[in-house]
User: Fold these one by one.
Assistant:
Number 1:
Amino acid sequence: MSGNTFGKLFTVTTFGESHGAALGCIIDGCPPGLELSEADMQRDLDRRKPGTSRHTTQRREADEVRILSGVFEGKTTGTPIGLLIENTDQRSKDYSKIASQFRPAHADYTYMHKYGVRDYRGGGRSSARETAMRVAAGAVARKFLEQRLGIRIRGYLSQLGPIRAEKLDWDQVHQNPFFCPDADKVPEMEAYMDALRKEGDSIGARINVVAENVPPGLGEPIFDRLDADLAHALMSINAVKGVEIGAGFDSVEQKGTEHRDEMTPEGFLSNNAGGVLGGISSGQPIVASMALKPTSSLRLPGRSIDVDGNPVEVITTGRHDPCVGIRATPIAEAMMAIVLMDHYLRHRGQNGDVDVSTPVLGQL
Amino acid sequence: MSGNTFGKLFTVTTFGESHGAALGCIIDGCPPGLELSEADMQRDLDRRKPGTSRHTTQRREADEVRILSGVFEGKTTGTPIGLLIENTDQRSKDYSKIASQFRPAHADYTYMHKYGVRDYRGGGRSSARETAMRVAAGAVARKFLEQRLGIRIRGYLSQLGPIRAEKLDWDQVHQNPFFCPDADKVPEMEAYMDALRKEGDSIGARINVVAENVPPGLGEPIFDRLDADLAHALMSINAVKGVEIGAGFDSVEQKGTEHRDEMTPEGFLSNNAGGVLGGISSGQPIVASMALKPTSSLRLPGRSIDVDGNPVEVITTGRHDPCVGIRATPIAEAMMAIVLMDHYLRHRGQNGDVDVSTPVLGQL
Amino acid sequence: MSGNTFGKLFTVTTFGESHGAALGCIIDGCPPGLELSEADMQRDLDRRKPGTSRHTTQRREADEVRILSGVFEGKTTGTPIGLLIENTDQRSKDYSKIASQFRPAHADYTYMHKYGVRDYRGGGRSSARETAMRVAAGAVARKFLEQRLGIRIRGYLSQLGPIRAEKLDWDQVHQNPFFCPDADKVPEMEAYMDALRKEGDSIGARINVVAENVPPGLGEPIFDRLDADLAHALMSINAVKGVEIGAGFDSVEQKGTEHRDEMTPEGFLSNNAGGVLGGISSGQPIVASMALKPTSSLRLPGRSIDVDGNPVEVITTGRHDPCVGIRATPIAEAMMAIVLMDHYLRHRGQNGDVDVSTPVLGQL
Amino acid sequence: MSGNTFGKLFTVTTFGESHGAALGCIIDGCPPGLELSEADMQRDLDRRKPGTSRHTTQRREADEVRILSGVFEGKTTGTPIGLLIENTDQRSKDYSKIASQFRPAHADYTYMHKYGVRDYRGGGRSSARETAMRVAAGAVARKFLEQRLGIRIRGYLSQLGPIRAEKLDWDQVHQNPFFCPDADKVPEMEAYMDALRKEGDSIGARINVVAENVPPGLGEPIFDRLDADLAHALMSINAVKGVEIGAGFDSVEQKGTEHRDEMTPEGFLSNNAGGVLGGISSGQPIVASMALKPTSSLRLPGRSIDVDGNPVEVITTGRHDPCVGIRATPIAEAMMAIVLMDHYLRHRGQNGDVDVSTPVLGQL
């Protein structure tokens, strides 16, 4: 398989470039009988959409998704679901400069080395615009998981550059443009982003994502552990440079007595595991965290080379997110949903269905 | 595919339990014509082997690998390579207690929920003993990559609990039982481990792994980015809870002007990217880091439940690594090698061969 | 993977139903740098298109394909190629009867059992309309194979019901609506089809497909032999009930001395093998043949049951091909092209490129 | 994936050469809780074993299989099942001649072109000896299918060269060395084979395989239709040149009214479909047939070339089956079992379990 497909049983294959005609995706393996309409996807697409605040790119895309197949009389049929989003705001501009230069820290240089050609309009296939289709596909998985298993998947921005959220108030997450669960930090973030925009610089971020009520038993050791597939899924999102499950890198300094999550008949007493033991879900909340680097599309000049190997100074103009992490929460949720969906189907294939009548003991 | 296979073109499928008859593996897709003997794998297997110092488990396994197929007259034939390691030190003991209890923070509980049965002898399939076959398979990949492309893959322990290596002296890595590149820290690590063993506790660790001279162009966007596959590979190693590429979680607080690796005609000026841009290798060294949790096999009692849901106090006896990170360096190297090998073949399939005559510009 | 993807490195994933909004497909893994436009695909799509003679269904579909991604400045970029064909002639009709009955020998009954729901409009996903996307994808593979390796893929109808082509004159194949290579048999076929249409019955057919100038070495034993993948590909076409390679079922009565294709320094002396030895191409022409059953959409009544299990008499009205084999030649060619393309890339991945400068010795 | 793995959820990966140390296989994805011992596999292995009559090769292999993992206390655990058969009768002989010649109609020529090297001892990987592991793996699938779904899979030789079985008496199949269901034809076959052996020639055969009580709903359109996967599976068996499902090539001359299997509330009235409609099982018996070519290992001289391209006359000595079809029945059954098992798990993954309490209506 050639890299544009994710999942083994619930498979998502995407196509499309930043400034091409359209983005599209095929979801294969969706169980039949799920009520599904464009509105189910639009909700999440709108959360990811650019241009909803002054802190994201001003590109205007409606990101309206169309279902082209796989749904009949309002329900999935078990056959592949074709999705399409037309690109509407591909601004015509002069790409001649960008075509001959490698922007520092962009995929320009590596795509050119890999393929010998590249679509330089807006980053082509390497643009994060591609993640719109992940969000659409994730919405399908999310709906199924919620209806069938009662799984709830939610994410939030836990850190924007130097500013950390110190409270986790889920109700706040959608009350600000940052997906920040700590209302007290929002003004600070607003000010930080305004200053940054003036400077012309960009900043990194950290996103956490949590899945609750996941039944124990999902995950396929040895290589397709649930956490390994999650790491794969999250690291495949543009700009992600690190992934943690549960205690993550804090585990390095933990002693065994401290890290191990003890159990009682009522459930686990802590969740350093992040909900995964031996690669299999334990019933505890699945907790993952990811680091996003600052975008490299800056109007502050940077040293680079052109396609002939000559030194150049590159300035990136155009419409860019100064913090790609701001719009990444729905994408992280979508990838979590796709991974869980895929593993639920894989588990059911080998082992039969999970017993949804038993309450999940694992909850922290 | 059911989870015990890694790779798309260079595929590694393993079997075997901690106390079963044998461990085995099939490598499929290895290019023909590679000189290969058991000795090529034994070198790495010996580096991972238990019982080589007082700081690791005292289980005695020769870990002697046999090649059963795929090699003829000293060279690979392109057909599948069957490998076998017989288990020789499965100590017979009374497993009745462990059979009915879930050790806290072990896979006992999750395997039971997933499969309804479990091989409780020494952790069965969930034991890190399985990683021996990864090391054997990785040695094949490593040899090919070195001979064909001049790639060098090396790892080291960068942190053992609270003790961080502060120098990176590659020559030191194999001069101590910890794979520590900083000779000055070794006495401290020795003392720390001795104290820990007396306590009966365990500790986490961090391992770094670096691949040098990787040609630009390896990696398959969107989902099978080189870094995503690396994250998958490393997170699939027992006890790993976090993975970073390049600057990793430090990216969260970096500004774009700080993070972006500028280029000159002579190469990159920094390597925050960790050698991967847009999911494709850039020619810079590939740099990954992983966090390993402390083992949960402790003789200090912990609260848990038995298979009937009753509360129990669990004490784990037997032979265990107080720091699984100590033996993890060769495993991380092996997974890096398998990922690069797989991506080299995938790249060659779609795009034709890389030009090995051109020096890699990417070096930092 | 969930059944709607074909190929390992050159992968084709399709979606779409007979009377849905559109058909689509994603080609992933296409080598970069191939000149490609809609016209390259349209040529083959037009050959498969319905309504070009009175002997096929009178449904009017322009089958105009749009490239939505993966092509930039006229060349493939190595990223996924998204293709779309809008359905334009979904005639609105009363489906209430068909919705509650299982047409004999149709997929109605099995889709209902598999998925619990089905899109009954025109057969939904089970309709041969889906093959349009195979033809489009096959055209991409065909173009690459021709330009890069000089491979030529051609098919023809060798038998229509009781009437066998007795001459193989390639120039005749496109001179008649049947893809028949024997001009003498065309009037007989015309008459036969006219009579059949009056009767309201249908008839089977046999299609042969030949690939010339295929380099030796393509095919992956053991399970993904070239002939096994070809059998898979051809049997996956609607209505196909049998596949032969080379001598096929005639091999049953052949002696070894008769079947074996002897060689001289100039090449093979016969081609009972059909170009495949041990699952790997030999350089001889690849020769495959397939049997297509008569369509079961008849206006002559047939006994069946309804969704409640009651006996019913079913009459199928609407626009149908009385011999689905007539339009199957371009589909068989497309699947042959996709299989060869996939195996060429897989071969190149593991073994490096084939040497195209050496003439293929294998030719018969 | 590199060709030595079959199946998506129930995956079988094999290794081993004719004269190597051992044959092996890993079954991944087997449901847990299945009682399994070596004896379950040995029964089928013994049916395939060489040397049980004078009509097969006189190579003596006990073909004793060992289970190395995946079974604990007599039951499968859901983890990979490692199987091993040591080769015991690799007769040492002078291979110098065979090493430099390409035997006509063998894989010698194609393996050499593909890989540049080949293991020429007994055909290496291309030998049908590899099929032993398929039979072992098939036995696991067969046992599960029988216990869980009541599926029965049986095969027979329907034609040996010019001699056709005219009766199908299942009780006779194991009463003669040919798996012939027509006792009256056995003496003729005996005489035919004796004469053939004297001549030094070989002959083709046809094998039929039938699966009864298969629930409706198995098979994944579009590309992974049940019949397409069966064609793949059967064509991947050494020497197979043709595959039919149901009426097969007879469909070419059938009219729609003749071919279509009408239904009544009691079931189908005929089975031209061979149990598959639209790529999905209908509940009717699955009926497949395959053609095996005559072996090309003949002591009658044949024209060929050597590795330098010079003309040579080749005589194949050694121990060979004059009719490979004779031992092929258990192999065909095994592949049928593996395909059905894989599709059952795939179906259960996407759609939930089949209802085994309802009797299968589909029976003919």
Note: The longest strand of chain B covers residues 152-160.
Number 2:
Amino acid sequence: MPDARLDLVNRSFKLAARPVGLPKRSDWLYDQSPVPSPAEGEVLVKVRYISLDPAMRGWMNEGKSYIRPVAIGEVMRAGGLGEVIASRDANFPVGSQVSGSFGVQAYATARGAELSRVDPSIAPLPVWLNALGMPGMTGYFGLLDVGQPKAGETVVVSAAAGAVGQVVGQVAKIIGCKVVGIAGGPEKCDFVVNELGFDACIDYKRGPIFPGLAKHCPEGVDVFFDNVGGDMLDAILARIRMRARIVICGAISQYNTTTGIQGPKNYLSLLMNRARMEGIVVFDWADRYPEAIAAISGWIADGRYGSREDIVPGLEAFPETLLKLFRGENFGKLIIEVV
Amino acid sequence: MPDARLDLVNRSFKLAARPVGLPKRSDWLYDQSPVPSPAEGEVLVKVRYISLDPAMRGWMNEGKSYIRPVAIGEVMRAGGLGEVIASRDANFPVGSQVSGSFGVQAYATARGAELSRVDPSIAPLPVWLNALGMPGMTGYFGLLDVGQPKAGETVVVSAAAGAVGQVVGQVAKIIGCKVVGIAGGPEKCDFVVNELGFDACIDYKRGPIFPGLAKHCPEGVDVFFDNVGGDMLDAILARIRMRARIVICGAISQYNTTTGIQGPKNYLSLLMNRARMEGIVVFDWADRYPEAIAAISGWIADGRYGSREDIVPGLEAFPETLLKLFRGENFGKLIIEVV
């Protein structure tokens, strides 16, 4: 039987240049090439959904980080979901639904050890890139293990309508915290309050967030889960309570700077308040992902947990779609559907 | 019998104005007034030594902090040592050697509950404002409880020849760490290496500290105990190891800024390295001071612990002497001897 794959054409975005500031179209190379055949122990995945994450901007830079940079000429790294269409690993037969680091491309080969199974009967596939994927794991462990909120405490999360923010706020509510989100625009604020059950949301596009913090966190902030950095982090630092915990998950306001990172000038509030600021990288909890997936999928099943994805069709839309993250234009977890 | 105290004249420095930048002479009011009589439950202390600390600069500012600001017209707050010369508290008879928050003055009244006994047979009096006083407590608990160094780890401390730096470095050596100090000038560096036993010291006055960090901390920094802030903190952030702990004790480089605090622009290294930055205020360990005093005085008795004080004679020298701290001109714990 002839191999139908030989007729398939892969499409991918490769890193063409290291961006200065926001990635430009010319920083990407759109490439078409034959679909590779899986080697022994590998599978071939037809990628269906590609996760777009703020962290991708960091991977495009040179230099030491928590993960090696994407090389020039390499397919851009990205998490994704797809279906095994050819298999040389008996654990993942053709038809398996899997997630993995497939890159920004339509087809990917991967070793079985690099794959996770996803179960569409638990939640629709895109949710496996959101609440049941990396953002879910990040929010769950970052909040619970590092933020260590206690029932009754006030938790604030920035980028509240984003992938990680949704998780942090909902998990914090479930364990009995007061939750205040920070998001851009009335629609996102309505969503996190009315659909996700946050206690309040501050619209940073309306002006400085400090009055909102004073109003909604009258006793101060016990846990801040920061995805944004910049002025927002400083405003929170000015309002933390004694022994507050600030979880540094990201700093999307700073990733495209061309003038240098803005350090938190109010960091001495950590001293005044005996507070802590700690960074997290989700991979550290890899052996406990099943615990978080079990918890969150249980809440989804109970109807206690909602999620929202912002799904953009078309691999070719990748360069422009990625920018939505840095402009705060995505509404929920940003995903490309490969069509 | 006539009360000889009626003949005594108190001398004090009161806060005349809130300084902008470095405190000027005109920010102080030198005052002479009759020595007060102790009320029931109080003692009158003839102050002999006054502790000069970087934190004093913060107490001169308005606004919320970990302790209320010194009011305009109030005697400047300062720790001190002295002798009880009149007593209406049977627990502290005349002749008792005591420490307390006596202020920048020659005589002070205080309640017994506000006093600690000092024992000159354990260590000379000035050491009770240094290794056995607040700096000792700060360094001991800040390092051990918050920095949590393990034997074999690399500990870096800024202002290494200062009061807190001496403690941090020596305690870290005693528990088996590699210790690198940062200090200004070859004399201070020689002192911490050759007299206090640090493994190395980087002279920040010779230029950027980064080459010294690379040389002396080839595997990176596990614990940084920061008394300085500014560029020094950023240089360390660029060189921390995974799960490093940064203890924020002070930021003397920033206390007199008139252009705004310099936030650590490399703070995202906390994320990359899953590291922690945490502030401390020594008062939180007040009920455990005896533990630290027992440990440090034991090491002093064993000859394993050295301390150095920079004692300046004359209460009247206070305004100019305080500035030595901010210019890095003190060599060891800065103390005024009231003569």
Note: The longest strand of chain B covers residues 42-51.
Number 3:
Amino acid sequence: MEDEKKEGSALTRRSLLINTGKIALGAAGLVAATAGGMGLLSKAEAKGGTTEKWPWPYVKLDPQKTADIAYEEWYRIFCGGAVISSVFSQLREKVGEPYKSFPVDGFIFLKGGISGWGTICGSNAGANIVTNLILGPPIAGSDDGMMMGSEIMQWYSDASMPIYAPKVPKTKGEMPKSRADSPLCHVSVGKWMKAANKDLKSPERKDRCARVTASMAYHLVELLNAWKDGKYQTKGTFPSAAYGINAQSNCMECHSTNVPSPPTAMK
Amino acid sequence: MEDEKKEGSALTRRSLLINTGKIALGAAGLVAATAGGMGLLSKAEAKGGTTEKWPWPYVKLDPQKTADIAYEEWYRIFCGGAVISSVFSQLREKVGEPYKSFPVDGFIFLKGGISGWGTICGSNAGANIVTNLILGPPIAGSDDGMMMGSEIMQWYSDASMPIYAPKVPKTKGEMPKSRADSPLCHVSVGKWMKAANKDLKSPERKDRCARVTASMAYHLVELLNAWKDGKYQTKGTFPSAAYGINAQSNCMECHSTNVPSPPTAMK
């Protein structure tokens, strides 16, 4: 973790603004090449995009209301989009910019673990987008946004899901629960399908994912509110520091007993 | 695929604007509840965010220049951020909005497969963000953005990486290549580390990921340019339609010969 922080900041210092074709900082002012010729940019634009100032303004939200929105939004824009929308749609009203400028509906593709590929569960991806955009990325001065996202993935992996129970459920009957032990859609959905004996296209599987999405939105707002109150102490880690490779913790689930050792620096 | 499309559009119709707390469409005009009371919104805002109109304006970019930018940007904001920046930084200059409003630097967390967890490779995640934001999400009228992202993940999985060779490389010597057969960071990086016998923190591993990022940026712009010319015919698929679960195609790599069958609709 400490090494990773050092790596990030060292790389940032070394390569900041080199050859990116974006901005030339001159003593006489801030000048950039544009398609139409040379033009003066405002200081805000010169730092990058107009929304790249962190943290973004946040007001505390109600976790239950946010979860209720996420549940309904799943049936419009699925897991990742719904988590983002559940938070940003409220902040568009309560705060305005930069939330109005963020293209929430563009993130529908997070569904099914990125377009049905079963990689990261979209509710994890959406939550990471929210924490990193509100708290800010590491180069803005704090790792808290990234670590809150990492903490959420561990929480998701450990939880018996879904936690959220809708007031007006889309499906009737008891909702089976399962523990993913992974942030991946394929593993999470697969274990639930086995536990529930329901296929991917069943109304129950869809409603399970809508409820997982709402569960995520609820917990996400709990953490954001704690951060707003100055009480957030991250439980997040950067797993590669422990494993010597970017990884989740359930090694044996894929590797069985034959977990490979990564090459070490001395080799 | 066809079923998936039907599912999406049916869900969209059914739940559009229900209980999202965002917008009420009345015969008298567009009215929304805001934190400060009731107010009139512009038509653009009423549709959602101000940037949620697709496709986003695109002008053709030079693949080689884009790859060169991505390579340098990796050393500032890592794989996912660098892919987004390599395209959007040029479009900020050539087009302006909505690219100036998009918080590129907020996506540093895509590194290491989302904060070091080894899930989707950030260059895949970044490329998917770019294709879905430029071409638009499925509810904007076309699946092409999502399918271009899916096509890119298959291309990434099949390619002997890295393809890109920098003019001024950060590391000397021959760069080993490997085939991931997966869009996941853990699998992709792990296979390369094994092939190269280099550890995660080595300059060579970092430079390998910078070159993969540049390779991705190059191909991404090739596809975007073809789309701009009206010549894009997607090779992308939505894998769950074939597998009955959100999945990648290398089942035996984790499951060995014991690949489980998902529950079927008749059970």
Note: Confidence is low (pLDDT under 50) at residues 1-47 of chain A.
